[in-house]
């Protein structure tokens, strides 16, 4: 289970980076401000999901504490 959550966490963190870059490029182009705002909201949601997954992985594995 910890391998699954670790892989899922890495995927979500990759999505955070992709959404961040898309949002930044959209802001630099100066096009639709509403789209930039929606992308940044999506980034925050993905970051929250990544944090929850990281905490779940730490909880499942014991947080690096010796058994």
From TrEMBL:
Q: Which residues belong to any copy of the HIG1 domain?
A: 1-67
Q: Which InterPro entries match?
A: Hypoxia_induced_domain (IPR007667)
Record organism: Neorhizobium phenanthreniclasticum
| Residues that span the membrane, as ranges | 6-24, 44-62
For this UniProt record, the keywords arranged alphabetically read as follows:
Membrane, Transmembrane, Transmembrane helix
What Pfam families does the record point to? HIG_1_N (PF04588)
Looking up Gene3D superfamilies in the UniProt record yields: 6.10.140.1320
Please report the name of this protein according to its UniProt entry. Answer: Twin transmembrane helix small protein
